[in-house]
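Quick one - first record:
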Amino acid sequence: MRKWLNKSAAKRMIAFIAVLSIALGYLATQVNFSFKFERFFSSEDEDVALFQKYKKGQYFSDSRTIVAVELPNGLFNTETLLNLEAATDSLKRTLWVKQTMALPDLQYFIESPMGMVGIPYVDASQPENFEEDSIRILKTESLYRVFVGKDFNSTLVNVFSEFYLNKADADSLKHSIHSVFNHYGFDKIHLGGRQINQSVIVDKLKSEMAIFVSISVLLVIIVLYLVFKSFWGVVTPLVIVIGTAVWNVGFMTLFGKEIDILSSLIPSILFIVGVSDVIHIYTKYIDGLRQGLEKSEAVWKAYKQVGMATFITSITTSIGFLSLILSGIAPIREFGIYMALGVMTAFVLSFTLFPAAIILLPKPKIVLSRKKANIWDEKMTLLYNWVIHHQKAIGIVSISLFILGVFGTSQLKINSYLSHQLPKSNDVRKSFTYVKENFSGMRNVDLFATVKDSSKSVLDYEVGQEFNRLEHYLKINYEVGALISPASVIKQTNQAHLGGQPENFIYPTREDFSALKANLEKAKKKKFIKSIILDNGKTGRVTGNMPDLGSYINLQRNEKLLEFAAQNCPNLSVKILGMSHFMDVNNLRVSKSLIKSLGLAFLLISILMAFLYKSARIIIIATIPNVLPLLLIGLIMYVMGIEIKVTTMLIFTIAYGIAVDDTIHFLGNLKIELNKGKELNDAIKNTFKTTGKSIILTTLILFSGFISHGFSDFTSSSIMGILVSSCLIFAVIIDLTLLPVLLLWLPKSNSNNKVLK
């Protein structure tokens, strides 16, 4: 580095980086946004492969948009019913809409000499029958709280489209639905479903990505100015971190990576993390200038003093992120890889662009201010003296917090809610609540059961009984509003055979079943029934809607369901499929893999510490101040009722990778002080005064950046911002209190000094 610490070499370096930045900056503007939950599923999962098979046949409801329509004049109103029928008919002719399912489309059947006769559940032209119709709907489990709200003041319309619509087409569909219902006088509608969620989340990703990068820039500018009181002291570090973020997004575009809900965090996190290297270097540079050194010598001395520590912290932070490659989930692996790449990019720019800029720029005015430096020395000396006089208290408090942290963290359970993936203030999330309160919920339950005996079909009497048992079990244990299955097809056919009354929606006796066979064969050919009876009658689907009770409860229920099926449905091989289920499974699987990733990060960083210091004692001393903040985060989560899911588990990996940097900088500077021949006590004191200042400043910037994410509309992003920023505060407090105490408690011998040298 020293060879090119001159103006000519500095100009060439800046020109080269500028050209590269323009190219990567252009690529960054071409980045695409993605909303594909399937990428969070393991491609090696056999159930996922089966899901993909049936999905192609449109057997899943993920292509469904739910429209909950408020009816101010109630359902049983002629004008309301006519407008509702006209609206659904209009939707069927709308671009992207393949099919609708709403109350005007639904009929019950009566068997007659002329065959099956369909009768509407409610007829707008016959208001005299409204009372009788309302009683029938109340008694019909497939209607009440499924298509008709609990108070008859709302109705639900299912709109089916292509399985995958891009963002523009999904927006077009959303606009069409609003236009149609508004045209027919329905001003209050609530939308939900994959297509709508996509539109909302992608829009929010774009806006929040821009907002939080802007907030991070503003906060960094403010802190840098307050610290350095210099225009170039603000601009130069700012260019470094902006360049880091731009380069990283450019690399993402270059390698075909799209921005998803997880990778949208990368630019703002990199912006925050990247500035820490610059702060340490710039602080040492100013100290050198105050000592009367020329710029080139001050730069060289700064990099000589903190360069190795900065390199090591970049490595440890990268290790923290790279540990995520243990995850079997592509977006998480990619998040770890690109974050690690970004951290090393920040390091490279800090060691190339930053010194080049310093050489060309004038000395900062803050160099002339000795008063500010003296204030820092005084404050850090006072803090150090306080630590020295309260060693026992610090030890006792630390042990107590460690025990509490272990307890709190051990009590955390893995759990997530589908609705929490949505912005908390958005209309779609409010729609979840509305549908939950008035209908049976938006969450799908999907079972696929294959007949084991190839000579039998799902419409055989005994097999149908087993599907009926599954239905009954789900209704009792899953809070399902209504279910559709081969058993319900048989019960509906039996109902028609017995006169069409709701009370006759029952599974037939064996004697009555034989009379239904001809009608069942006709039913199999209907388009809708084909989504229930699959694989030429060898596989049956059980599907319905339920409230979102969280993955923890759902997975427990599913385990018991499969046990029930194994014991009570000997003819069926039952699989639980569907997007909702896979998100639950994936949350559990990924959370466990992230625990392994965190363990790997601990191991690799410990190995690095062992290589640097060749002492088990120092490894323990360096580890404790970085484990304790994580345990405190676990304690906070326990107290606040925050559960483990993918995003909260990522907090631990991110926080550990960043928090360990302070410890390394402290130990690195301590090593320099010891190499000067100072005793351990004096070396710790000097390190405390110099490095303590830098880690406080970097923590302040990191805290400011992460806490801004606490205002995110995405609950997961908000929690991440609050907890990571809290962890960083805990880390700096512990590094400035417990770490010196642990070092002072080392046996005072020359051999121990040599460990750190």
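second record:
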Amino acid sequence: MGIEIVGRIDKINGKELSYKDFAERYLAKSQPVVISDLTEDWRAREDWVAENGLPNLNFFATHFGKSRVQVADCDRREYTDQKRLEMSVLDFVEQWAKDSVEDNGENDDDDDDDDDGKSVLYLKDWHFVKEYPNYTAYKTPPLFSDDWLNIYLDHYQMHEDRENFQKYDQISCSDYRFVYMGGKGSWTPLHADVFRSYSWSANVCGRKRWLFLPPSQIHLVYDRQGYMKNCVYNIFEEVNETKFPGFKETTWLECIQESGDTIFVPSGWHHQVYNLEDTISINHNWLNAYNLACVWDLLWKDYKDTEESIEDIRDISDDFEALCQRNLAANTGMNLNDFFIFMSRFALGNMVLQESLNPCSSAMAQNLVLNLSTIKKMMMKMISAGGVTAKDVYLDLRETLEDPQFLRFCRDMGRTYKMIHKEEDNKVLFPEEFLLKIMGFADQKMQICSPKDLVEMIDRYSTCSSNPLA
């Protein structure tokens, strides 16, 4: 069964694209695009690429060889994904180099059957930035820097056990900044990105082929349209028409991503990707005001699916809701309570930054207003859904605003928005009177205990602000 390709993804020059235009044309309209000329000054394009343009495997073996990484076996499926192996970077690049020699026919003495059972390996989801913070391989392009997810995770865990004050590493991702490395023929099955986040992917070297399915057609690649449980795995294999009767109606967009190109993948666009050459890429997932509704919609859907999956033990469970939230965090990466705390801290940070701005009419100020307005809308959705029920889920305002960790979080946000909007990079300071003013917008208990509390605080702040919400 072949697929119908009906168009190509646009390509534009990144040097000619302002953040304002990018936000209006691609973020707000949820349109994919290939962008050139964003990676020329990256250290990775010097260190990681050999003179012949291929990956410099010796550099990785020498400098990062001891790192333990996840490697996908592209020829073996395990449930809904490729089978994952764990190995050192050194072992991975040695196997890659060996396979490349064999593919080039340089092992003439080998029998013809030696390649039987050989798999194409693909290193994925390497948290390189977290593992090597002192090695600046690249800088996130300003177009993609309004990144609530990774700014937040640089300072907080997404999921915490508040009862025992322990952080669950097994269900909390340290960040969503990844390095991918794979030989010609390695690939990624059809999928949409985690949290329905945005993603960007830049080729340090090599070329990729991307196939995109618009969000309006995603029901055609799932087998249970009412539940959206199982997705087509490989669009180029024979697809079971009984299981996926709508697949033959899908229409796809295609693009070839060259070395140095960066591709923007909007929320909810399913995609399948092939490495046409030996390739190294840098990939980030991120979210902000423009796609927050997509994130919430998926989180709520996953919550209802989780609730349904364990409904048969509701009557015998000591705390059925807590079990739902724990399972949701394990399967999705965050639960409803985590999302609420994430939004509460981010809203407070935006208020603190607005108080520090002068003049208040700047592009950065308008960005912060958009952020608060969007968070308010998401909290109103949570109120309608009844999303936060745990009694111990709250944010203590005085404790938060006096916490050095929170102030570092705010300063990083401030530096990021100043860079995005090309405003003067003065040191972001938060005098005590700013923080006291923010506390004044809270209620008497000085806590944000529910989405309703956060909505009311945002409203009180907006009423007194020089940049009221629309």
